Amino acid sequence: MILGRVLEPVVSTIKHEELFARSVFVVEPIDADGTAAGATFLAVDHAQAGPGDQVLVLREGSGIRQVLGQPKSPIRCLIVGVVDAVHVSHDTPSQAAVAAKPGA
Questions:
Q1: What is residue 53's predicted lDDT score, i.e. its pLDDT?
Q2: Nearest 10 degrees: CA dihedral of 74, 67, 3, 96?
Q3: pLDDT class of 104 with cuts at 50, 70, 90
Q4: What would the pLDDT profile of 2-46 be if each residue is shown by its tens digit?
Q5: CA–CA distances in Å: residue 104 to residues 86, 98, 100
Q6: Structural domain count, the chain
């Protein structure tokens, strides 16, 4: 999964049957600070996202087919969540594990 920002909707009059009644958006990959981190791509919405939203995008066909319950779905990028906030911890993995243990 990657973090992205929804830029704008894509409108088409003719589309694959798997895309009927689904919104398609232009998404820009971003880093944890919200800075652009790559080339834009198209993603199908599965989380009621909209322009300006930070989103989680699944970019792996098998996982997408499992989420949609469609074993032959051609969808390559799927918005699976709207992100409210991003918190980056600068703890090392061992420090984070110790801090998470009750009584540590």
A1: 97
A2: -150
A3: very low
A4: 999 999 999 998 888 888 889 999 999 999 999 999 999 999 999
A5: 26, 6, 8
A6: 1
CB atoms within 10 A of CB 53: 19
Cα–Cα distance for residue pair 22/43, rounded to 1 Å = 10
Q: How far is 72 from 87, CA to CA, in rounded Å?
A: 36
Q: Provide the pLDDT for residue 87.
A: 85
Residue that is written with structure tokens 């049957």 in the block: 17
CATH number, domain with residue 59: 2.40.50.220
Find the domain containing 51 and state its range: 2-100
